[in-house]
Write the structure tokens for this entry.
Amino acid sequence: MFQRRVLIAAATAFAMPATAQPAWPTRPVRLILPDAPGSGNDTTARLIAPLLEAALGQSFVPDNRGGAGGRIGVEAAFRAAPDGYNFLLGNAGSNGINAAIYRDLPYDLTNAFDPVALLVVGPNALVVNARVLPVNDVAGLIAAIKTRPGQLNYASGGVGSSAHMSMELFKHEAGLDIQHVPYRGTPQLAQAVISGEAPVAFANLVNVSPYIARGEMKLLAVTTLQRHPDLPDTPTVAESGLPGFETIAWNGILAPKGTPAPIRQRLWDMLAALRSNTTLQDRVRLLGGVYVASTPAEFQARIDSDIAKWKRLAEAVRIEAQ
């Protein structure tokens, strides 16, 4: 009789559908952020976490590990157990640019993690101080910089930041001579542009939108290949004389290598389902982005593309983090 029960149980197990969901999560899940509280990445995490908790019945706890250009947080995730209770919310800097500018990373960003979903994408913005640079478009800016080679400064949030690499790409493609002045972060970058100390910069659109609205900065272009839906009259850099120019701010969830595929699939299912959450879409749009919840393959393609682009640039203009 006992043997018969065992055989029935085994047959039942094999008869379960292949799509059966794993018994996960059964305890809180840690979401490691390679950023400080209040960053765009942090804001995304705190929008997503309660929605995942509601869908999956366990807390998703943001764990901020900022510093060293994102290296501290990424390394913490790289060394975390691949058990489905540790994930990384990486971004274009921590999981893209860093592969190009650091020579001593203890991980290979092309394959150290399993991508789950690219969550939010958005443009950077090219802004100027109109008092110092009274130009109306990208062509005018390029011409103005070329008449004053080596005399003007541009601001960034630090070496290797998206603002820094975007401008270095712009300089390289347009053949410009303009000096880099790194600041501690976006607030300091903004004040440098407003004061005229460094009258031009690329920055995440959401971070400079208030200054643009108050007339303290002038928006010349966005860095996506298509125009921003909320700024239909603002051209892209690509259509302004630099075809193909694109830099994108993004973040997405990655799992330590070896995290069980059924767990990654279940998390992706929940993230994809949030595409229909109009409240989430509206809140992300207010931050200057779009919630996309891409497939893992699409996310990996974005990572690979960014790493290849930034490595080419870093080698061409000799950028290396100290």
Q: What stands out?
A: Confidence is low (pLDDT under 50) at residues 1-18. The chain is about 40% helix and 20% strand. The CA atoms of residues 58 and 257 lie 22 Å apart.
